[in-house]
Automatic annotation (TrEMBL):
GO terms for molecular function: ATP binding; glutamate-tRNA ligase activity; zinc ion binding. Keywords: Aminoacyl-tRNA synthetase, ATP-binding, Ligase, Metal-binding, Nucleotide-binding, Protein biosynthesis, Zinc. Residues 6-237 form the Glutamyl/glutaminyl-tRNA synthetase class Ib catalytic domain. Belongs to the class-I aminoacyl-tRNA synthetase family. GluQ subfamily. It is an enzyme of class 6 (ligase). Signal peptide: none annotated. It comes from the Bacteria. A motif ('KMSKS' region) lies at residues 225-229. NCBIfam families: PRK05710.1-3, queuosine_YadB. This is Glutamyl-Q tRNA(Asp) synthetase.
Length: 291
């Protein structure tokens, strides 16, 4: 099997240090396995997208020496494919329409986990509906970093098409990982609980299951993940080498002092040759001291 990994940012703003961690970890794992590293722009949510962010992401990756293989895939070009597969899931009975609002769900169940109301009480066909995947069981998996994972208390029929007319992340990412023949996924631990949902869809659609590895996310002192929403600063391209070395240290790779006198290409070459995924901290989050 040819190792194929990927980095899949959303164009909601410039890359920040949290983004860099996922990019570096997935890149090094691919290069250490002599594999391919693909780039996918996950532009599924136009209201959240920032104009020019896609181009900025590509430019930043190049400035940081993180060169991808093949063409860049953009989810906004793949709506027809998602629509066809969504129809297949509905026709097979693996998915159904749901007209429930979050307020209605909370009122009925006292929480946010869906109570399957529309599975048993189908809405009228012209209702303003989301589409949910039927999910009757947990899908435990063994993570290469975090170990055995199970989310039995979070099993629910989850949304794969939103009420506002947009395809949901879980559906699109599952379809695209299969289409790109992704064999290994390395990403942030904030997506751990999305993994069983993607495994569910893989099984419904007859897709192979990739190997998963979830790195700890960088958090601020308040425990919040670094993100555009928490005002994480954009990466400074003039500090590319220093930031990559910092990312290697965060990921437990023990970068040698000599790397500070190297260039980006030399640094990434050293990191690829010395990459050890077992050294990545088995934590879901680590506080970034100056955040």
């Amino acid at each position: 099997m040819i190792y194929t990994g990927r980095f899949a940012p959303s164009p909601t703003g410039p890359l920040h240090f949290g983004s860099l961690l996922a990019a570096v970890a997935s890149y090094l794992d691919a290069r250490a396995h002599k594999g391919r590293w693909l780039l996918r722009i996950e532009d599924l949510d136009p209201p959240r997208e920032v104009e020019g962010a896609s181009d900025s992401i590509l430019k930043t990756l190049e400035q940081f020496g993180l060169h991808w293989d093949g063409e860049v895939i953009r989810q906004s070009d793949r709506h027809a494919i998602y629509s066809d597969i969504l129809s297949q899931l509905i026709q097979s009975g693996a998915a159904y329409r749901c007209s429930c609002s979050r307020q209605q769900i909370r009122k009925r169940s006292g929480g946010l986990l869906y109570d399957r109301y529309c599975r048993n009480h189908p809405p009228v066909t012209d209702a303003h509906c989301a589409i949910r995947s039927r999910c009757d069981q947990d899908h435990p998996f063994d993570d290469r970093i975090q170990g055995h994972q199970q989310f039995g208390d979070q099993v629910e029929d989850f949304v794969i098409f939103r009420r506002d007319g947009f395809f949901a992340y879980q559906l699109a990412v599952t379809i695209d990982d299969a289409a790109q023949q992704i064999s290994h996924i390395v990403r942030g631990s904030d997506l751990l609980d999305s993994t069983p949902k993607q495994i569910q869809l893989q099984q419904q659609l007859g897709y192979p299951q990739p190997a998963y590895a979830h790195i700890p996310v960088a958090t601020n002192i308040g425990g919040q993940k670094l993100s555009k929403q928490t005002l994480a600063p954009a990466l400074d391209e003039d500090q590319a080498l220093q930031l990559i070395i910092r990312a290697l240290d965060f990921l437990g790779q023990q970068p040698v002092a000599e790397l500070t006198d190297s260039n980006i290409e030399e640094c990434l070459s050293w990191a690829s040759a010395h990459w050890d995924i077992t050294a990545v901290p088995k934590q879901t989050g680590i506080i970034l001291e100056d955040s």
